[in-house]
Every structure is written in C-alpha cells, then in structure tokens.
Amino acid sequence: MGPDxxxxxxxxxxxxYDPVMRQAALESLIGTWRRFGLIGPVYEIVGIGExxxxxxxxxxxxxxxxxxxxxxxLSNLLDDPTEV
Length: 84
Known about the structure:
By secondary structure, the chain is α+β, with helices and mostly antiparallel strands. The chain contains 3 helices and 5 strands; from the N terminus they run ααββββαβ.
C-alpha cells in the first residue's frame, strides 16, 4: 500500500463518524480508476452501492475489459492500486 492509499484509508476511517464527510468521501471516488490487485483487470468506480450488513460499503464498479458493472466492497477497493 503506497502513501496515497494510506492517506485515503485514514480519511475514510475518520469520515466514518460524520455522515456528510462519509458521503463526500465516497463521491470523491466516482470516476476514478483502479486495478483488481497488481495484475487484475482495470475498473472504473461508477457509483455508490448499498451499506452491507457488516458495516462495509459497496461501490458500483465497471470492469473495463467486459463493460460489466458489479458491486465491490469499499474495503477491498481501497486495497487495490490506482490506475491513470
């Protein structure tokens, strides 16, 4: 995990307690690109999904290779490397 990703995780951890900050933090991810792991396919974050039972958040992502849209856990997304 690089320094930018650490900052992002800390920001999300702190915004968890403030619903307005949390919403803004989630919205800031929309339109950004990441890769599933180090060598997986690239995806674009296209929306905010539902809050999952364990308290995690789902985000809607579109996989570049297949154009498929799926829900993906925010906790997993934050572990994935960013793409430019």
